[in-house]
Structures are given as C-alpha cells and as structure tokens.
Amino acid sequence: MTVNSCFTSEKISKIRWIHEEYQDANTFVTGSWGSARNNIKVWSIADSNYAKEFSIKCVDKHSTIGDVTGLEVFNKNSLAAVTVEGLLQVFNVDKITDNFSLSRRGGVENLHKFKRGNRAPCNGICVYDDYAATFGEDGRLNILSLADLCILHDIAEGDNCSVTTALFANSKEILTGNRMGVIKQFDVRSKNKEALSTFPISGNDERKSVAITNMCCHPTQKHIVISGTEEGSLMVWDLRKIGFPISCFKAHAQAITEIGFHKTQPSRLFTASEGGEFWQWVQQETSFPLNQSQAFPSESDSNNPWLDSKRTKNQINVTSLITGVRRAINSFDVHGSHLACGGDNEAVYIIATE
C-alpha cells in the first residue's frame, strides 16, 4: 500500500471518484468550504518519475458561493452538487482527449427555508439513479428529479429537527438521521409524509441526544445500515427490526464524518473522523485484494459479523490508513484499488493498495 498526499490550497468538504469502466479511476472531483467563494474541481492523477508515486493536477473547476456540502456522481458522467446556501447544481462531466471537463446543466435555488421564510442551510444530498434528496437545517427533505431539475415533493420532519444525513435504502425508501439521534424511514412515493419507522439511539450520556452524522447501507444486504455519530460510535441497524440498534461500539475518539462500504467488496468498510483518522474495517474471512473484480461474496445473516456485536469484535480487523493529521478528514471515496480522502488540512490523499 502506498499513500500520496497532494496540497490543494483549500479545505475539502467532499470528494468523489469519476468512475471509469474496466480500470481503476484516475479522475476525481472535490468540493471545498471555508471561503467566500468555493470551488468544485476536477482532478486528474499524473504519474511521477518515481515508482509508486504520483501527483494530481486540476483540469477544470466551477466556482460557487457558499460551502459545498454535498457532491455525488450519478449515471457515470453526471455530477450533483449542493451548497449550504440551498443551491443544487447539476453538471455533465465530459471526457475531452485524456481529461474530464465540467459543463453546468442547470440548477435549483432556495431549496431549504425556515417557517418564517428565512433561508435554511442545506446539509447535503443523496442520489439514486436520476433522483436526489436534499436535506437541511429546516428538517425537510426535498425529493427532486435530476433529469428535469424540479422538486417532485417534500417531506418535513414532524419535530422540525435538523436532518444531518440521508440515504436511499432503495428506489422506494429513504432514511434520514437527525441531530437528536433518530433515524426515520420514509416512503418517497407516498403522499402520507409520516415516517414508516423510527429508530432512536442513546449516547454515552442517556440524558443528552447524540447526532447521527453519516449512514451507509450494506451493498448486498440492504436491510443492514451502519451509522456514525458525533461521539465517534458505530451503530448497526436491521431495518426489519424496529427499535434500537442491534449493536453499538465505540470507534473513533471524535465525530465520524463519513462511512461507507467498498461497493464491490462488502467485507470492507471505511470510516473517517474529525480527529484526522481514516480507517479500514476488514472481515477476517476475506483475503482478496481491493482491486480484484469479482461477484459479491456469498453472505447471509448467519455469518455477517455486523449483525452481532460479539462477532464484530472477533471477526473484524481495523487498520489505520491515515492518522495523525490533526485536522478533520471530511470525506472519502473508494474505487477499485484506489482510495481518495480530503479534509481541513487542505490536502488530498490518494491511497493505492497494490
């Protein structure tokens, strides 16, 4: 494994690979935060004169007002980005000769507002095919068509609590996590805006709420959801069992900023934290390398270690990929044998596992 770090001169809030078929990704996009005007940039990996080393170069960028709070690639060559100002923008990511370029297709403004009409911060976006959901401090979800750039309908949290993360479990259902530490499950097709299910958590101190900061679904067993909290804990949920998490354990010392499985190798989970840590969680039974292309391994509830806290501790090995950064690692993405992450130290780290 080799780790290359590259200075970006701006704080990175989000990072995503542009997927390329039949090869490891060599192009990624970043969103920045902390400046009056921030950037959505396309970066390309360039080989170095030294073995196993490479650098990155910015090949295109788009400036925007406000922090970039969400960035997702959909339909392989399209990009959806949201800012704290409540602006959704959609870009085509076109390959010209050896590099990619951004072309803005359109946008939707003022997606989130408080009851009195004041603008509410937008906290992020999640996508599923041509559909997206934005979520914000107003406790509202906006379900949008990315093809037509229009709001199909919205869902408001009954308690108006800030929605900190959201996730499409499938094409019909969406999960939200809020600042009070509650996960809710909604039917995006239903005119009834009440939650189908509610999953509460409790923190180390039962007298205070613990915000849910990020969530991900298991790639092959969609009923398994793992969430991270502001205390640095991991919570494992079974959506078939309404109630509290089926397992919970302390992970990072500070808040988990992002969490996600490897898309084609579900035995591998990755977490990043505000403490500047980037970890890999690997199921012991699996020994294939990250870049190996193969069908999903056979898994069932009986042997999935995430569904049992004792099995999790005994069968999951945790490896630190990056540590000691001392600034938050805000986002990461994985494609094949390449991992990319970035954060508040104005650097991007590219990790090659072979």
Automatic annotation (TrEMBL):
Could you tell me which Pfam families the record lists for this protein?
A: WD40
UniProt xrefs under InterPro entries:
WD40/YVTN_repeat-like_dom_sf, WD40_repeat_dom_sf, WD40_rpt
Query: According to the lineage, what is the superkingdom?
Result: Eukaryota
* Alphabetical UniProt keywords: Nucleus, Repeat, WD repeat
List, alphabetically, the Gene3D superfamilies matched: YVTN repeat-like/Quinoprotein amine dehydrogenase (2.130.10.10)
Q: Where does the UniProt annotation locate this protein?
A: Nucleus
- GO CC terms in record: nuclear pore outer ring
Specify the protein name. Answer: Nucleoporin Nup43
The organism's lineage? Eukaryota, Metazoa, Ecdysozoa, Arthropoda, Hexapoda
